């Protein structure tokens, strides 16, 4: 490394350790032509009662906004090293308050020392959530304001904005025009039942009629421990089983689960009777 390059790095580092330039803040004009977006998530009964809650609805709202506002390839932050000490970073942060979905875009330099020089764009979607006995209703309003912080790097060279004014408007419109996010979860039920056959025979029946997950047979001399998948129509169910000797026969302890999807249009793919149907299938296999 020559003396000239060392001198340049020394100058840069002196700026990093010293004061930063103050970004110029400007308002970004937004179109107010967009209409509110309404989402409705229906509450589910029984073992699925914890699928649609205020927390899962807020999470679905945040995911919806995040999915349609760009930088989806970044998990908060993308970056690449420009030099051994300076990393160019860019990305987006989406967070919820009790009344807004806040979005911050950023782009700029990050130093190994921890100092950053970033241009940013801030905006937010106001929202309200109404809970009834049947559902959660979300009213998502258009973003009303946006501001840009136009910053410079350590050498006072302007840092380009993370998103142009035109692209920002297009992304904000996407949020209100695209379908909302589903709430996808699994529901669970556990219990036990007795079988008239010995544990080895019951184990063989499950292996023959269900699909065993790879590397999930953790059996020992006392207990057969397994995880299986099986189909009920187009849906794939999962079950963890413990099979062991009980009063000369067998006891099967199970933990059943299957996926549930709740749409933002007030519908769901949940069948309250399905868990009972799955359990009866397990009992039939165990006794075959």
Describe, in plain words, how this protein is organized in 3D.
It is a single chain. The chain has 288 residues and is α+β, with helices and mostly antiparallel strands. It has 2 domains: 157 residues, no CATH class; 104 residues, Alpha-D-Glucose-1,6-Bisphosphate, Chain A, domain 4 (2-Layer Sandwich), CATH 3.30.530. Helices cover 23% and strands 40% of the residues. β4 and β5 form a beta hairpin.
Kindly summarize this structure in a few lines.
With 288 residues, the chain is an alpha+beta fold.
Which word captures the global form?
elongated
- Domain count, please report it: 2
Proportion of beta-strand residues: 35-45%
CA radius of gyration: 28 Å
Total strands: the figure is 13
Largest sheet: 8 strands, antiparallel
Broad structural category = alpha+beta
The level of helicity is 10-25%
Separation, N- and C-terminal Cα atoms:
77 Å
Q: What's the mean pLDDT score?
A: 89
Stretches where pLDDT falls below 50 for ≥5 residues?
1-11, 13-19
What series of H and E elements makes up the topology? HEEHEEEEEEHEHEEEEH
Query: Counting H and I runs of at least 4 residues, what is the number of helices?
Result: 5
Notable traits:
single chain; 288 residues; alpha+beta; Alpha-D-Glucose-1,6-Bisphosphate, Chain A, domain 4; 2 domains; five-stranded antiparallel β-sheet; 5 helices; elongated; disordered N terminus
